Amino acid sequence: MSTTPAELPVEQLRRLRFSAATAAFQVEGARTEDGRGRSIWDDFVDTPGKVLDGSTADPAADSYHRYRSDVALAAGLGLDRYRFSISWVRVQPDSRGAANPAGLDYYSRLVDELLAAGVTPFPTLYHWDLPSSIEARGGWLNRDTAQRFADYVALVADRLGDRVRHWYTVNEPAMTTLEGYAIGALAPGQFLLFDALPTVHHQLLGHGLAQPILRAAGAEAVGLANNHTQVLAATDAAADREAAAAYDLLHNRLFAEPILLGAYPDLTPLGAPELPVRDGDLELISARPDFYAVNFYNPTTIGAPAADSPIPFDLLPTPGVPVTGFGDQWPIMPSTLTTLLTDFSRRYSGALPPLIVSENGASFAEPDDACRVDDTDRIAYLDGHLRAVTAAMADGADVREYTVWSLLDNFEWADGYTQRFGLTHVDFATGERTPKASYDWYRNVIARARA
């Protein structure tokens, strides 16, 4: 596979905006500064055995103190937009009542720095850091959490809405439901299987409540970012195809269709409980977003479950393809991104607003100490997936933006510091930043698109 930006299809590149992303808990550090409260991820990482290397997210990349240098890195790439997230517990430490001025001051400074550098701020309002006090009252299992989220959104919009016009509401509700509440691999670490499904509706309801608040504050573009995967049946056997359809329903359709079609897909064939929908909920959730954002990392191969399995599918390795630092969990198959984007465009047709690829990236083993990393494997991954995006565009998919995860090496949730995704190497002991070869590659891609 070529890794030369000059060979990328320039016609489609010129139609794209380019971005890179981070998330508050993963890069900010300063977990006890400025009155910040506790989130479910503070509780998770402080519980022995939950994080692979026993680390915590402090100082992480220390972006709370080094945000100016991070904005300089974003500007140095020539980014159109920088996707970052706002920590709910930094803004509203007790999850109720007035905002914490010091927390909002930090994000106000970050926004001003981005605007001064010519980079559009594109914040995410919820990237997994639910206040612990809300989780104690049921978390996303509790309908009231959607209203608490709306109240928090109003506080942020009141302070930043004069300068921020582009917003992501909720990030990856699928992962919060499936990995946070269903199987417990991520915070809050609950193992509820199908009993986790109310969290789907309450997260989407939070998104629906947030949209009019943001628009009233002057927003030009509001949408949700979800993790989607192209589902591959392990074989053409009927049992494998049925299992793949069940997984596609739970990972993809269950989260997309309420927003795009105003209805949930039928879950009764899975024996799943009915979702707690009330009158008017779906009208809020399906109010047309300005974009639909897809976080994409890998396809998922699915086979029929064992006879005694509590779930109707089995996740399997994808044969015959390379993998990232996560091993068999993250196969590299860029063509599946083309398929997913074109399938979405055909399945939802006129109901689908413009698409954004809101995260795409890969982790590989790299040194801990500050150094220049020649990360040709990451360049090949990004090159392949950017080509996949342009192929989907050539086939009619209305993709408007491409976002690399991540601008920086960061704290990678339950994997701690064992996985590095950044275009920029971070020495977590010193905070030193060193752009990698992939940083230069992405900068050259953007320059070619603007030439």
Essential attributes:
451 residues; alpha/beta; TIM Barrel; 8-stranded parallel barrel; 3-stranded mixed sheet; 15 strands; globular
Describe this structure in words.
With 451 residues, this protein is α/β, with parallel strands linked by helices. It has one domain: Glycosidases (TIM Barrel, Alpha-Beta Barrel). The chain is built from 15 helices and 15 strands. The chain has helices at 10-13, 24-27, 40-45, 63-77, 88-91, 101-116, 132-135, 144-160, 173-182, 198-216, 238-260, 281-285, 335-348, 376-394, 437-450, and strands at 17-21, 81-85, 120-126, 166-171, 221-227, 231-233, 292-295, 300-303, 314-316, 323-324, 327-331, 355-359, 399-405, 424-426, 433-435. The strands form four sheets. The protein has an eight-stranded parallel beta barrel with strand order 1-2-3-4-5-7-12-13, surrounded by six helices. It has a three-stranded mixed beta sheet with strand order 6-8-9, covered by helices on one side. Strand 10 (323-324) and strand 11 form a beta hairpin. The longest helix is centred in the middle third of the chain and has 23 residues, at 238-260. The model has no long low-confidence stretch (mean pLDDT 97).
